[in-house]
């Protein structure tokens, strides 16, 4: 506006000019001060301001278009495509170069706000320590706990916590793209850095009737050959190994095609990043607008219920990242075009690259080649490596190993696999109760990646009938004790052992069982035998007794506390409505569990009896004693030159032992204490 001043007629023109200049200068200074304060405020609260502006802009401009797309293509799957097809977007522009798609305009606007905020974040950081790295064409920054479609979820690795080394290894150092988010419903994402070496043909994609999903009648199509589709592991929900009860495998195809048809069968997740399903991809191929190599095909997805991802972010399990489409395509293209890429590399390079873009290189290097890294590689070797040249397990060798684990009187009567299965069934039904089992002695433990408690375990079968088989683990002391009052008024504390992951439903204080294997107590009929024995009932090695019988025997001087084992919890194998080759029988047939010969049970019991209540001080001794008891239960028939974890100097046998050690710390001791203190060249410190 204009500044108008009036002066009395007595003022000279000179003083009028001076006064005007002074007053104008004063206003300029005030405006500069206000501008500086406003700039500081925007920098401090930019995330909130720009988030509000972005969401307001994107919602009003694109809501009706998104509803239209949902009506036209309600069953679409979210998938991406190829960056070298970006030039095809020119087909969707008018003569002035303007994009005709309103929905694309709104999404591009949202992406521009992300880019603008990346510049703001970068401007507030030092060049060497910032959380945002930008260049003329690509950028990524830590967006805090703000979840939105198109965000990147980057797994955070804590060196003192090994959960993803013990379970769901595919989430360790994962890079995920959020394809859907509604904070009141569901969040959905696909893992970007788990490429497989599996290629599927068109006939491998079947509909509900078991027929090829897509049949073309387009005579003008140049697609005369069967297409080949490389598969990425996208997540554990409706993933590669999902069966019909889970809805089958969900296919998500990423692409960057921007023609009218492509936009009609796709959803834009980021600028130039689209998702469609297999049907949509085939339509684009039939229209000569794409080839199969233009798609990145993901099997399965990761899912979070309402509020779950927010809780995990608050626990600092993930980094929530905003990144541009070029960053996404660079990583996916590298995975596709790298001819030396092995699925067992498990996308670790992509994770490290993004950590570097966030300025977190040191953090990434600190957890390199960790226990969880090696477990991830083993998961990849087991789950996403196809048609490999890895050694194939010889089933006849497995059978021979299993026969050796049975008593001589049983194994000598077996002359074929069929007769073994029949005899094993009779053995399960008639004689396994009271038997001691141990974990597998295979070169690669079947319990390396899950159920680590069964690795090199010692377990007693306490029940076996037509309904179920029940066992209790003997080699896992816990941190608690159970008191028994004696006649002299004292309480005798018994270390409680972890018997298994099951309890009686609805019961807060789970029952405790007491076991003994002392000949004098057996002769005195203290308790009753757990099972039968080929040598007569009095010769059954392990007996079960009540708390009162334990107290009475100790009061009478017949026994001490070390003669008893106190166990809580149990393992269950149901038999109802399951095939005859599943349950504990299947684990015996495959050698996942082995029967300890009766002549060795006494030594196994003797070794385990030396374990004590679990504490930080007794952790190592109890762990080594558990391994000794397993060795006492039979020969270690594993190869003298066991296989190594891919691209490492660590054997799978050593990794399985470490996995059991970490499981013991995490679930029995109450927290990992050895992570970060372990050197594979020298062992635990």
Offer a few descriptive terms.
single chain; 685 residues; alpha+beta; 7-stranded antiparallel β-sheet; 6-stranded mixed β-sheet; 20 helices; 35% helix; disordered N terminus
What does this structure look like?
The model is unreliable at 1-13, 40-108, 126-130, 389-396 and 405-416 (pLDDT under 50). The chain has a seven-stranded antiparallel sheet, with helices on both faces. Strands 6-7-11-8-10-9 form a six-stranded mixed sheet. The termini are far apart. The protein is globular and about 115 Å long. The chain is built from 20 helices and 26 strands. β17 and β18 (491-498) form a beta hairpin. 35% of the residues lie in helices and 18% in strands. It is an alpha+beta fold and 685 residues long.
Q: Nearest-angstrom radius of gyration?
A: 33 Å
Helix content: 25-40%
Number of helices: 20
Low-confidence runs = 1-13, 40-108, 126-130, 389-396, 405-416
N→C terminal distance: 76 Å
Average pLDDT number = 77
Strand coverage percent:
15-25%
Summarize this structure briefly.
The protein has 685 residues and is an alpha+beta fold. The chain is built from 20 helices and 26 strands. Helix 11 crosses helix 20.
Write the layout of secondary structure elements.
Blueprint: H1 13-44, H2 46-72, H3 102-123, E1 132-134, E2 139-142, E3 152-155, H4 163-166, E4 175-182, E5 186-191, E6 195-201, E7 228-233, E8 251-255, H5 260-264, E9 267-270, E10 273-276, H6 278-286, E11 296-299, E12 302-305, H7 308-314, E13 318-323, H8 325-337, H9 348-357, H10 361-366, H11 371-383, H12 395-405, H13 408-411, H14 417-431, E14 436-439, E15 458-464, E16 468-473, E17 477-485, E18 491-498, E19 512-516, H15 519-523, E20 528-529, E21 543-545, H16 547-555, E22 564-568, E23 571-574, H17 583-589, E24 593-595, H18 598-608, H19 619-632, H20 652-669, E25 678-679, E26 683-684
Parallel strand pairs: 7-11, 18-22
Antiparallel strand pairs: 1-2, 2-13, 3-4, 3-13, 4-5, 5-12, 6-7, 8-10, 8-11, 9-10, 14-15, 14-24, 15-16, 16-23, 17-18, 19-21, 19-22, 20-21, 25-26
């Amino acid at each position: 506006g204009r500044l108008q001043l009036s002066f009395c007629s007595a003022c000279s023109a000179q003083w009028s000019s001076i006064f005007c200049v002074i007053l104008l200068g004063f206003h300029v200074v005030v405006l500069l001060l206000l501008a500086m304060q406003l700039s500081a405020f925007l920098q401090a609260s930019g995330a909130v301001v720009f988030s509000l502006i972005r969401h307001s802009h994107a919602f009003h401009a694109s809501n009706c278009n998104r509803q239209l797309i949902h009506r036209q293509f309600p069953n679409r799957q979210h998938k991406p495509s190829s960056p070298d097809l970006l030039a095809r977007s020119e087909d969707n522009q008018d003569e002035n170069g303007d994009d005709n798609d309103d929905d694309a305009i709104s999404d591009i606007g949202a992406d521009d706000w992300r880019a603008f905020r990346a510049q703001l974040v970068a401007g507030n950081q030092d060049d060497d320590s910032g959380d945002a790295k930008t260049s003329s064409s690509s950028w990524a920054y830590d967006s805090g706990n703000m979840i939105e479609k198109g965000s990147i979820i980057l797994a955070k690795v804590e060196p003192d916590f090994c959960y993803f080394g013990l379970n769901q290894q595919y989430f360790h150092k994962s890079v995920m793209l959020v394809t859907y988010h509604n904070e009141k419903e569901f969040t959905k994402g696909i893992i970007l850095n788990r490429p497989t070496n599996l290629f599927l043909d068109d006939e491998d994609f079947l509909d509900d009737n078991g027929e090829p999903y897509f049949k073309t009648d387009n005579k003008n199509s140049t697609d005369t050959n069967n297409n080949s589709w490389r598969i990425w592991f996208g997540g554990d929900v409706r993933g590669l190994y999902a069966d019909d009860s889970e809805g089958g495998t969900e296919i998500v195809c990423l692409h960057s095609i921007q023609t009218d048809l492509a936009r009609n069968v796709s959803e834009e997740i980021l600028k130039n990043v689209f998702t469609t399903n297999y049907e949509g991809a085939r339509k684009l191929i039939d229209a000569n607008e794409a080839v199969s190599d233009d798609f990145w095909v993901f099997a399965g997805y990761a899912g979070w219920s309402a509020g779950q991802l927010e809780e995990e972010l608050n626990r600092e399990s993930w980094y929530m990242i905003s990144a541009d489409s070029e960053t996404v395509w660079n990583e996916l293209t590298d995975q596709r075009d790298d001819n030396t890429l092995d699925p067992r590399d498990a996308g670790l390079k992509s994770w490290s690259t993004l950590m570097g873009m966030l300025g977190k290189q040191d953090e990434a290097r600190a957890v390199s080649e960790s226990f969880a890294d090696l477990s991830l590689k083993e998961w990849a070797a087991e789950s996403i490596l196809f048609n490999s040249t890895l050694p194939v397990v010889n089933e006849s060798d497995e059978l021979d190993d299993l026969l050796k684990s049975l008593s001589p009187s049983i194994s000598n009567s077996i002359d074929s696999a069929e007769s073994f299965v029949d005899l094993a069934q009779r053995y399960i039904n008639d004689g396994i109760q009271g038997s001691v089992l141990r974990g597998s002695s295979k070169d690669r433990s079947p319990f390396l990646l899950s159920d680590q408690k069964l690795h090199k375990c010692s377990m007693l079968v306490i029940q076996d009938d037509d309904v179920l088989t029940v066992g209790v683990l003997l080699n896992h002391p816990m941190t608690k004790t159970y008191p028994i009052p004696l006649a002299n008024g004292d309480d005798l504390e018994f270390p409680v052992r972890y018997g298994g992951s099951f309890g009686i439903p609805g019961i807060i204080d789970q029952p405790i069982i007491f076991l003994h294997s002392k000949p004098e107590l057996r002769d005195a009929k203290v308790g009753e035998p757990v099972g039968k024995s080929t040598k007569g009932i009095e010769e059954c090695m392990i007996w079960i007794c009540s708390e009162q019988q334990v107290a009475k025997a100790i009061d009478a001087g017949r026994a001490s506390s070390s003669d008893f084992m106190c166990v809580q919890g149990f393992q269950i194998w149901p038999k109802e409505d399951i095939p005859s080759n599943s349950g504990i029988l299947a684990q015996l047939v495959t050698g996942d569990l082995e029967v300890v010969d009766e002549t060795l049970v006494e030594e196994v019991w003797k070794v385990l009896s030396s374990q004590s209540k679990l504490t930080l001080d007794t952790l190592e001794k109890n762990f080594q004693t558990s391994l000794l008891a397993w060795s006492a239960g039979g020969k270690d028939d594993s190869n003298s030159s066991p296989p190594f974890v891919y691209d490492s100097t660590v054997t799978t046998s050593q990794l399985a032992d470490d996995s059991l050690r970490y499981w013991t710390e995490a679930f029995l001791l109450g927290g990992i204490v050895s992570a970060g203190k372990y050197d594979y060249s020298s062992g635990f410190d």
